[in-house]
Amino acid sequence: MRTEPDRRERASRAPSGRVEYFDVLRCIAILAVVMIHAAITEWHEIPVESARWDELTWINSALRFSVPIFFMISGALFLDPAKPVSLRVLYRRRIPRLLVAYAVWSSAYAALDVYGPGGSGDLGDFAAAAVTGHFHLWFLLALIGLNIGTPILRRIAEDRRIAWYFVALAVPFAGVLPLLTGIPVFGELLGDVLGSMRFDLVLGYAGYFLLGHLLHTATPSRGALVGWSVAALVGIGVTYAGTSAVSRDAGATDERFFDFTTLNVAVVSVVVFCAAKAWGDAHRLSPRWGRAIGFVAGASFGVYLVHPFFLWALRQYGISTEIASPTVGVVLVTLLACALSLIASALLRLVPRVRGVLA
C-alpha cells in the first residue's frame, strides 16, 4: 500500500466535513450488527446438526466484520495527527460520556431483565446486572479502554513502520494462537506457554484501532484488493467451518471462531474497510443520498444501544427469525428492528444533552 495524499482525503469529505465513506461504513456495520443479534438467539437454541443452524451459522460468519469496522473508524478519527487529543479532553469529555451511556443503558436493560416478564424482581440481581452490563454493552467498555490508551497509540501511529509492526504482532498473538489452544494436548501446552508469557500488549482491539488509521491514510492497489477479497472469502469459510466443527464436537454452540480478533474475521474487516475507501476515493454521494446516509450514520450509535430492546419486544409479539426460512426471517426481523431503533435514536438525539451520550 502507498500513503494517501491529503488532497484525495479532502476530496472524500462531504461539504459538512464528514468523511462520506465512514458514513457508508457505519450504515453497513450497524445493519450487520443488528442482523447478527437477530440471528444469534435462534442459533443458540436449535440443534447444531440442523439445516437451519447451518444457514444461521453462514449468516453470522459473513457479518463478523461489523464491530471491527466501528473500531477502525474510531481509530482513523482518534489517531489523526492533525487533530490533537489532550488528556483533558479524554477525561473530561469522551470517557465520561461513555461511562454515562454505559451506566444509563446498563441500568435500563437490567431493569427490563430483572423486573420485566419472567424476571426475578430481586434487587441484588438488578445491581449485578447493572454493573456487568447487557450483552452488547461490552462495546462501550472496549471504547473506554481504547480512549484511555489513545495517547500511547497516537505515539505509535506517528511511525508507520512501528504501527504496522504492532498490527503484525497482533496477528499471531490475538488472531491465531488463541484458536490453537483448543487443540487437544498441543493446545493445552500452548495455553500454558502463553499464560506464562503474558504478552498482552497487542491483545484486544488496539490492532483494529491502528489498522483504521493505517488503512485510511493509504491506498491499496487493485491487485491487493483482489487478493484481500479472496482472503476474505477464505476467512468467511474458515469462520463457518471452524464454528461448525467445534460446535458439533461439543454438541452445543461454540463461538471461538466468531471472536472479533481472530484472523479469519480480521481479513474480512480489512476488505470491507478498504473497499469502502476505494469507493469513497472515486465517488461522491448525491446530496439526497448524502443526507440520508448521514442521518442513519449519525444515529448508528443510538441504534446500537437500543436495538436489543426492539428485538426483545418483537419476540414478545411472536416476531422472530423463526417466522420464515433463516435468511428471510433474519432480514425481516432486522429491517423491523432497525426501523424502530432508528426512530428511537432520532428522537433521543432531539433531547438536549442526550445527543452523543445516550444516542
Automatic annotation (TrEMBL):
Keywords for this protein: Acyltransferase, Cell membrane, Membrane, Transferase, Transmembrane, Transmembrane helix
GO CC, one annotated term: plasma membrane
UniProt domain Acyltransferase: residue ranges: 20-344
Membrane spanning stretches: 21-41, 61-79, 99-116, 128-150, 162-187, 223-242, 262-280, 292-314, 326-348
Compartments in which it is found: Cell membrane
Membrane topology: Multi-pass membrane protein
GO terms for biological process, alphabetical: enterobacterial common antigen biosynthetic process
GO molecular function, one term: O-acetyltransferase activity
Superkingdom per UniProt: Bacteria
InterPro entries per UniProt: Acyl_transf_3_dom
PANTHER family associated with the record: O-ACETYLTRANSFERASE WECH
Protein family according to the UniProt entry: Belongs to the acyltransferase 3 family.
Protein name: Acyltransferase
Species assigned in the record: Leucobacter chromiiresistens
